[in-house]
Design goal:
The chain has 22 helices and 13 strands. It is an alpha/beta fold. The protein folds into 3 domains: 168 residues, Rossmann fold (3-Layer(aba) Sandwich), CATH 3.40.50; 168 residues, 3-Layer(aba) Sandwich (Rossmann fold), CATH 3.40.50.300; 109 residues, no CATH class. Helix 7 packs parallel to helix 9, helix 18 crosses helix 19 and helix 20 runs antiparallel to helix 22. The longest helix has 23 residues.
Length: 501
């Protein structure tokens, strides 16, 4: 995913020089077995920074450096930067079983699984390592390697110091976080292009949250694959970004291919790319994208890291996410600055700005590092707001005993706004919701005792509905919601008693 031409050693910007100096000072002051996490926004040049850091570390400490990455493209990119700075490096890929000429290299670059296998076979596979640099340190796969380097310094580098697994916070493995320049600071100093954001109202009803905490790919394929969302995407592109070089980020392959098909019908210059493509096809498409002024590249996941194309003019988020890290990774692909490019566009079709704020907004990363759970609770703009976008998912066995489809089709929010628009009180929505529940329950049983049992089974769904109602009327205190649920249950039982008598 990179330009495979030979690199030239890039001259460091003043803030990058200061960063290298600050990190080396931390290592000098704290000695071995000190793990440091460094945060720098996407586009800030972390590869250049840790390549120069590697050179200086080797010169001063006379020990070797190991760089860990999670993608082969990043390994190659890092190797070229190191070689350009006079650091002889070796990439440890799946073909490297032994390193008999280990003494000829001062730096090694490896992906996690490959190196983990080698070290399990021989824990002396690498020798004389003093510093381990972890690129994209928010991923948890690197943790398994730390046991082999317990007498080394570990430096993690990331744009977002939040663990990809909230149950495994980064503070467990790193002693200190050093925060680099902010996004707004890099923009102000002319190192990053500024992002101008355009948001469109989208209906995300139907999204489901998976066990990993983000919206599921399947549910996003359904929502974003429909005709109306495709039309909205095309409208947004033609209104804001027609003729520009555009990256479109999707959640699923099916959606991305539909995007390609829809744009091609309108004669737009577009190609699709995902992780199933061969290395040659990826390379060809990336080269086409680089050389084509009005190119549109619709992709799935593969371009969020390890991809650097400064000529991108517009980023389209044709997906929703609950991951602040992914949000920043996607937008960061457009932030590279060029002499003729000091601004790029961001089109949000997933309510992501509402969740996380604008890309340039200040973020207290020290809070994120020290108190990640509280930080996430405050950043994912109130968890209740997410619930209003997510369709309630019934337990599987409910479908066998109740007509859950009839429950799914009723929207208390739609009923509320319809009542208001037609001069009725919003309370009508509660009555219609109750009638919907009563109808489904009475279809399933004519026995009042069993009907009351069904009401108990439906408590989560009733609460979900009433939360939507409180959102409509902007009144959602815990006490009011509790009162509303209790009143709803009591009146629903009375309604069923009359219907079943």
């Amino acid at each position: 995913m990179i330009d495979f031409d030979l690199y030239e050693a890039k001259e460091l910007y003043p803030f990058q020089v200061n960063t290298v100096g600050s990190i080396l000072d931390e290592l000098r002051e704290n000695g071995n077995q000190f793990n440091l996490l460094y945060q720098l926004p996407t586009g800030g040049g972390k590869t250049v920074i840790f390549s120069e850091l590697t050179r200086k570390y080797i010169d001063e400490w006379k020990k070797k450096v190991l760089v860990l990455t999670h993608r082969i493209e990043l390994s190659i990119q890092t190797s070229k930067q190191l070689d350009a700075r006079g650091v002889r490096s070796k990439i440890i890929n799946s073909e490297v079983k032994t390193i008999p000429d280990q003494g000829e290299y001062s730096c090694f670059i490896a992906m996690v699984e490959t190196l983990h296998n080698r070290l399990n076979e021989d824990n002396q596979f690498l020798q004389d390592i003093g510093l381990v640099i972890v690129d994209e340190a928010h991923y948890n796969s690197f943790r398994k390697l730390f046991q082999f380097f317990d007498n080394c310094n570990i430096l993690g580098v990331t744009a977002t110091p939040l663990s990809s697994n909230k149950a495994l916070p980064l503070r467990d493995n790193y002693n200190k976080l050093v925060v680099g320049e902010s996004i707004s600071g890099l923009i102000e100093k002319g190192y990053l292009a500024d992002g101008k954001t355009y948001t469109y109202d989208v209906n995300l009803h139907g999204l489901k949250i998976g066990t990993h905490g983000d919206f599921t790919v399947n549910s996003m394929d359904i929502v974003y694959g429909n005709h109306f969302m495709q039309e909205k995407l095309i409208f947004a592109y033609e209104e804001i970004a027609r003729g520009q070089k555009v990256l479109i980020f999707n959640a699923g392959i099916e959606t991305s291919r539909r995007v390609e098909e829809s744009f091609k019908k309108l004669k737009h210059n577009i190609r699709h790319l995902d992780s199933t493509f061969s290395d040659k096809d990826r390379k060809d498409i990336v080269r086409w994208f680089k050389e084509t002024p009005d190119a549109i590249l619709t992709s799935v996941g593969i371009l969020t890291t390890g991809f650097d194309e400064p000529t991108v003019e517009t980023i389209i988020l044709n997906r929703a996410t609950r991951s602040l890290t992914l949000y920043h990774q996607m937008i960061g692909r457009g932030s590279r600055r060029l002499p003729h490019k000091n601004e790029f566009k961001i089109i949000d079709l997933g309510n992501n700005v509402r969740r996380f704020g604008h890309w340039q907004d200040y973020i207290n990363w020290q809070d994120a590092f020290r108190f990640p759970e509280k930080f996430l609770e405050s950043r994912v703009s109130e968890i209740e707001d997410i619930q209003f976008e997510v369709e309630y998912e019934f337990p599987k066995h409910f479908k066998e005993i109740l007509n859950t489809q009839k429950l799914i089709e009723f929207s208390i929010a739609d009923a509320y706004y319809y009542a208001i628009d037609n001069g009725f009180k919003g309370r009508v929505a509660i009555e219609e919701s109750m009638a919907n529940h009563a109808e489904v329950i009475s279809e399933a049983t004519k026995d009042l005792e069993e009907a009351i049992q069904f009401i108990q089974l439906l408590q989560d769904h009733i609460e979900h509905r009433l939360k939507h109602y409180t959102k409509c009327i902007s009144k959602c205190t815990p006490n009011y919601l509790k009162y509303l649920i209790e009143t709803y249950n009591r009146q629903l039982i009375q309604k069923l008693r009359i219907e079943l008598d």
